[in-house]
């Protein structure tokens, strides 16, 4: 799910403050955190995002299982709303009351990692533990060789098609588009025959790597997106918006749901969680929807949208915290959670379970199977990018200025490149 960008400046300021504090305080009270604890009982505080009360039974059983095999460890589980956890985390660390294991998305996990605010998992995990995850997903939070998070539940995008609108446009849903060019042609036909748009999208930086345009140089020290190929991509997108194939709007996830539910768009590019919303808001549209593999651009990427577990540097028990995070995200527990939550695992062994290949022809099963088939190719498009949140924001503003406000393509790309380079030097 796409996080609203309001509060980005405040969050960035908090991260900078945290970075300064970390340098000034030298890591707080964790100097003895790797000592043998013997029989001393320790408490690890786990924070998750929006999982209570739906998954209380699962987590209570998971925690009880861990505590039974680690008699000196107690787990205290707290759950917070999506929009609250980052600010709450920064505040708690600054006040000296850091949690031990925290659920964050990849973007913010990378942001925290680039500021030295979370531990390097490599210091506490063996090769077998690290090798359990899909390489592209695990490497999404590796910066300069340091692994700042363990991947947890994830998802890859699929293409949802409103079969009613597609058929009204003379299209065959059983032979769906496989490339972005074909998807654009489908959108044109939908617009011509029904007056509806093809799809809505958010103007974010992932639009570049989808078309094979890298956001940063290979060493992650400078912007790399200001290219003739980027100009051509943006001009093509502008034309599609002018034609009504893509809605001329920066449509966040909530707006995309509204447009698809109201049959203002015929297609939706999104993860399986999208189903939960249309099933409730538009049951008739849900019944007419199918899920097929996502059409690919020049980059031929399968982008993941992962949740992760991190261990803040201020944790008093980093080794025990990392081992608990590894337990939560191991193949057995990820498989079990996926069955409970209809998510996808980030562990290789999990996808061998028949659950991820079996289908009953429901929309949920279609999306699950299609998504699971792409996990071995999945990666976060901002792999290892320092200050990922701020880089994303700079590029998004540039796209908005060009596509919505009519600013010059090349001049705006030049300005965005300069802004991103400045961010990377911070």
From TrEMBL:
InterPro entries: Bact_solute-bd_prot1, SBP. Residues 1-24 form the signal peptide. Keywords: Signal. It holds the Pfam family SBP_bac_1. It comes from the Bacteria. CDD domains: PBP2_TMBP_like (cd13585). Gene3D superfamilies: Periplasmic binding protein-like II. Coiled coil: none annotated. This is Sugar ABC transporter substrate-binding protein. It comes from Paenibacillus zeirhizosphaerae.
């Amino acid at each position: 799910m796409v996080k609203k960008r309001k509060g980005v400046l405040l969050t960035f300021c908090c991260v900078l403050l945290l970075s300064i504090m970390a340098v000034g305080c030298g890591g707080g009270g964790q100097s003895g955190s790797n000592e043998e604890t013997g029989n001393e009982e320790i408490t690890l505080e786990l924070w998750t995002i929006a999982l209570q009360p739906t998954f209380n039974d699962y987590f209570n059983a998971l925690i009880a299982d861990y505590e039974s095999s680690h008699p000196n460890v107690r787990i205290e589980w707290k759950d917070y709303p999506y929009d609250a956890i980052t600010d709450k985390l920064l505040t708690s660390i600054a006040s000296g009351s850091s949690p031990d294991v925290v659920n964050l998305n990849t973007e913010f996990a990378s942001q925290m990692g680039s500021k030295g605010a979370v531990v390097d998992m490599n210091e506490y995990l063996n090769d077998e533990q690290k090798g359990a995850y899909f390489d592209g997903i695990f490497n999404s939070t590796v910066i300069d060789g340091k692994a700042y998070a363990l991947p947890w539940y994830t998802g890859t995008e699929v293409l949802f098609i409103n079969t009613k609108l597609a058929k009204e446009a003379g299209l065959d849903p059983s032979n769906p588009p496989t490339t972005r060019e074909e998807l654009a042609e489908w959108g044109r036909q939908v617009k011509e025959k029904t007056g509806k748009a093809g799809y809505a999208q958010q103007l974010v930086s992932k639009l570049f790597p989808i078309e094979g345009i890298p956001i940063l140089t290979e060493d992650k020290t400078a912007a790399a997106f200001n290219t003739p190929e980027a100009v051509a991509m943006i001009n093509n997108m502008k034309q599609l918006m002018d034609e009504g194939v893509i809605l001329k709007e920066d449509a966040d996830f909530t707006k995309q749901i509204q447009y698809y539910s109201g049959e203002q768009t015929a297609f939706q590019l999104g993860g399986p969680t999208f189903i939960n919303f249309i099933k409730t808001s538009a049951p008739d549209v849900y019944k007419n929807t199918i899920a097929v593999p996502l059409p690919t651009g020049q980059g031929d990427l399968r982008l993941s949208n992962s949740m992760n577990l991190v261990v803040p540097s201020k944790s008093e028990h980093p080794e025990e915290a990392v081992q608990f995070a590894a337990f939560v995200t191991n193949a057995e527990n990820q498989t079990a959670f996926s069955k409970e939550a209809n998510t996808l695992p980030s562990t290789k062994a999990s996808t061998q379970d028949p659950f991820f290949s079996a289908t009953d022809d429901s929309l949920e099963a279609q999306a699950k199977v299609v998504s699971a088939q792409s996990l071995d190719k999945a990666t976060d498009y901002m792999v290892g990018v320092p200050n990922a949140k701020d880089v994303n924001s700079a590029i998004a503003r540039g796209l908005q200025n060009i596509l919505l406000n009519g600013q010059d393509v090349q001049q705006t790309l030049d300005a965005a490149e300069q802004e991103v380079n400045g961010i990377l030097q911070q």
